[in-house]
Amino acid sequence: MDRRFIREHPDLVQKAAELKGVPLDVEELLRLDRLVRSLQHDLDQHQARKKSLSRSFARATPDERDALREQSSGLDESIASTRTQLADATRTLTDLLLMVPGLPWDGAPVGPNENYNQVIRTVGQVPTFDFDPLDHVTLAERRGWAEFARARNAAGERAYALLGDLLLLERAIHSHALDLLHRDGCTPISVPSLVREEALIGTGMLPKGREEIYELPADNLFLAGTAEVALIGLYAGEILNHTDLPLRRAGISPCFRREIGSASRDVRGLLRVHQFEKVEQFVICAADENESAHWHNRLLATAEQLLQELELPYQVVECATGDMGLGKYRMNDINTWFPSLQTYRETHSCSTLHDWQARRANIRYRDPDGTIYFAHTLNNTAVATPRLLAALIENHQRHDGSIHLPHALRPHLNNRTAI
Fold it and tell me: CA 323 to CA 333: how far, in whole Å?
């Protein structure tokens, strides 16, 4: 966040930290900010004095030079000491600044966790069956579409392997999502899953949340949990032209999450796994609140269109302040119906971050009159499998164990109507 904004609105920042459950001491941050500015002023003064002495030395007499050398030596000690103090204080201040949350949207429900989220609309009819429906694990195993036990032998808990038609169905879902986004004006892009620490910091995944990320210390790299990380990293440090905006990408990548916080939840099947595939919607736009709101609605509408084309019932949720994450201004989840659980589960998350990520990653743009601003960023899932795949086969199962294929997917599967 802009340090000037924090100085001028400390109460707003402290309130945002409380709403998001962030243990941030804004007064301590401001004290460090004052200290850093004071030390920088002292350093500038010492260095200016050092330059002045150097100029005087050339004109000085031999006796005067001895005195100038003594003064210069004392200044060298002061400069070294001040630099050390400044580096230490700046490091501590930076650590605190990285924990400053974005201010949440005024319309967000106030509450510490997802229990305070509010359903704002429900779309589609929950399916009814004239037989006892099976869960996705049983459906997949009976048809030889997945290996769970063997995958665990190879890769441990929460591992899976898809076979045959179920793998082809997963590919079809991703192909359909990329086709839809491409037609809508997004540029499809494959991005690396191996990312540097700076990309995770820029996105906001670090420093908080390190325990959820797979780290490769020997290479100073990490496995990303979403294509958003690499997409932010691609443009970090750049000044874009206003004609480049809005920059819209559909990023596809394998994703990796340790799921440390989930403990024993969803250990069966495909609902919560360590490795998955995702197409991510991503936007960099001008620093305008109305512009951000427009793209938030567009991203959300596209995700809803995909679920409607997959003929899946879902709910759109307004996320509470304590559930939306450190940098998010507004967040909507989409929860899809799972017959085996008799409930809706999260399959999409749509987020507006205003300039919070752009400041961390130093992503800027030059407007028509040449003024440079930090951009706004947004992201939302398009499709993430295998969780969405599990929802699809559960909702579209038939009495004989076959799976009805939605019309939108048939062109990607040789126009078959079922698998």
Answer: 10
The residue ranking higher by pLDDT, 199 or 66, is 199
Q: Which tens digits make up the pLDDT trace of 30-74?
A: 999 999 999 999 999 988 887 877 767 666 677 677 676 767 777
Q: In 10 A of CB 42, how many CB atoms?
A: 16
Contact 166, 389 (CB under 8 A): yes
Own/partner pairs, 29-32, CB within 8 angstroms, 24+ separation: 29/93, 29/96, 29/97, 29/100, 30/6, 32/89, 32/92, 32/93, 32/96
Cα-Cα end-to-end distance for the chain? 51
Report how many domains make up the chain: 2
CATH number for the domain harbouring residue 64: 1.10.287.40
Q: What are 159's two structure tokens?
A: 């591992």
Cβ atoms of 241 and 261 within 8 Å: the answer is no
- Among all chains, which residue has been given the structure tokens 């009819």? 125
CATH number, position 341: 3.30.930.10
Strand order in the sheet with 239-241: 239-241, 364-366, 372-374
Place of tokens 């005024």: 106
Whether 93 and 211 map to the same domain: the answer is no
Query: Do 58 and 207 share a domain, yes or no?
Result: no
State which of 49, 67, 97 marks the end of a domain.
97
In degrees rounded to 5, what are phi and psi of residue 129? Answer: -125, 145
Alpha-carbon span 300 to 348, nearest angstrom: 9
The model's pLDDT over 165-188, given as tens digits with 9 standing for 90+, comes to 999 999 999 999 999 999 999 999
Residues recognised as catalytic:
257, 272, 346, 349, 387
Q: At what angle do helices 387-395 and 164-183 cross, to 10 degrees?
A: 110
CB 324 within 8 A of CB 331: yes
**Using the 8-state DSSP alphabet, how is residue 397 labeled?**
B
**Residue range of the domain that includes 50:** 3-97
Q: Does residue 103 belong to any structural domain of this protein? A: no
* Helix or strand run (H / E) with residue 256: strand 247-256
Would you say the C-alpha torsion 230, 233, 238, 239 has a positive or negative sign?
positive
Where would I find the H helices in 288-346? 289-309
Q: Which residue is it, tokens 């874009």? A: 240
